[in-house]
Amino acid sequence: MKKLSLIVLFCLGFFGYSQSHLDHYIEIGLQNNEVIKQKNFDINKSLYALKEAHSLFSPTVAFVGNYTIADGGRTIDIPIGDMLNPVYSTLNQITNSNAFPQLQNQSVLINPNNFYDVKLHTTMPLLNYEIIYNKKIKAQQTTLQKIELEIYQRELVKEIKIAYYKYLQSVEGIRIYENALSIVKENQRVNKSLFKNDKINRTAVLRSDNEVIRIEANLETAKNTSKNAKAYFNFLINQKLDSDIEIDENMELPAELLAENTANREELKQLGRAKEINENVYQLTRSNWFPKLSGFADLGIQDFDFKVDKSSRYYFAGLSLEWNIFSGNKNKYKLKQVDEESKKISSQIDNVKQQLLLQFQVSQNNLRSALEQYQSDSKQKETAKKYNGDVTKLYKEGMAIYIELLDAQNQVVNTQLNANISLYNSWIAFAELERANATFNFNK
Asked: Could you say which residues form the signal peptide (predicted)?
């Protein structure tokens, strides 16, 4: 079977493979598809999230203003009179004067009354591993979004190709039935003429009438199938459902099979990126054990009764150190969860590798079968055509009955339909193989 497939492919190597109209429609589909637009929005969102993560390394400056008015509440008692009045009394006696007055004890509100504070508050992280790993995760998530887009694009290309081939298949089916209808109508005309001349019985006329009705019904079904195929194809490329579709001529067969390339499938890249993200999540969780160091600085003015002078201005700066000493083993259990997730992803990678390889092999075998089926149908079509020609001559010479002619003509129609189906089934199988192998080139 392998040798037969290779011989078939070699013999068909001269057939054209250029599909300019289809390539153009694929470009339109990739540009106009709403899901792709939505995924591009998600990618842009991820890029902005990455920029946001990068901005966490920069200082933050905020304008802060406070004004307080207070009365009552807690106070601080200052016994100024009790401390100084005995001293002042002694001094007055020595100086024989009242130069040192008696003082009252003071009670000052803790909450400042009629007090304002306006400042620029600046903070900046100096050492924070959470920010570092958060940025790495955001960058990998952006790449993950791009891979998801590529996966959808490949699937869309496959669907567009299959829809296009099915439309071409339906158009060719209409042409076959139209040719068949012209033939059976001619048979109907000839049989009616022969019946009038008493050369055949009424059975042949009735059978030819039924054949016309049958082919007309099949033709109508084929037209409806073609309309549906056109609508679905236009839906995939986001055009009006009744838009005309340009047809590539000489659609024969793919010229060659594909070498296995499943290791480059985006699905594996996606899982690999997910594993890398999980590793950084592990480091992010582990970083909770590391100290965090940040700096801060305030530059402003503050005073009572809205006074502004040199003494109102101030600056205040410092460092802040936070080190989580104990959290009830919370981080320890989080790390174990992340570790189990990593094992799960590794198992998924092994499983997906086998699935993708199986998909490729099945698609490869389906293409081989489709090619062989097309060769068989093509030979049967040629044989049926020759047989019909011979029977037609015999019928005109009165040496064959109408049933034999009808059988020969039905064989021609059926073999043409089968060859048409197997031809485009081969292209459909090739599109599925191309998808399974991720070989479509988006840059061509």
From this structure: 1-20
- Using an 8 Å Cβ cutoff, are 420 and 173 in contact? yes
Task: Read off the pLDDT of residues 162-196 as tens digits, 9 standing for 90 and up.
Answer: 999 999 999 999 999 999 999 889 888 888 888 88
Q: What is the pLDDT of residue 173?
A: 94
Q: Which amino acid is at 299?
A: L
Task: Tell me the torsion sign for CA atoms 247, 248, 251, 257.
Answer: negative
Q: 339 or 20, which is more confident?
A: 339
Question: What pLDDT was estimated at residue 80?
Answer: 85
pLDDT, one tens digit per residue, over 220-270 is: 999 999 999 999 999 999 999 999 999 887 766 766 677 888 888 999 999
Q: Is 238 left (phi over 0), alpha (psi -120 to 50) or beta?
A: left
Nearest-angstrom CA–CA distance, 156 and 36: 9
Question: CA-CA distance, 153 to 36, in Å (whole number)?
Answer: 7
| Token representation of residue 168 | 């071409």
What is the identity of the amino acid at 302? Q
Helices marked H in 197-238: 202-236
How far are the Cα atoms of 34, 147, 270, 431, 441 from residue 29, in angstroms, in the given order? 9, 18, 24, 16, 15
Handedness of CA 351, 356, 362, 364 (dihedral sign): negative
Q: Residue 326: helix, strand or coil by DSSP?
A: coil
Distance CA 186, CA 191 (A): 8
Distance of alpha carbon 345 from alpha carbon 77, whole angstroms: 67
- Record the tokens describing residue 59, joined without a space: 């200082």
- The C-alpha R_g of the chain, in whole angstroms, comes to 43
Greatest pairwise CA separation for the chain in angstroms: 166
Structural fold of domain 2-63+127-293+329-437: Outer membrane efflux proteins (OEP) (1.20.1600)
Count the residues in the chain: 444
Q: For the chain, how many helices (H) and strands (E)?
A: 9, 6
The predicted-structure confidence for 195-204, as pLDDT tens digits, reads as follows 888 777 788 8
Q: 239, 28 in Cβ contact below 8 A? A: yes
Alpha-carbon distances of 79 from 218, 268, 443, rounded to whole Å? 112, 79, 86
pTM score, whole prediction: 0.78
Q: Nearest-CA neighbor of 239 among 173, 174, 167, 170? A: 167
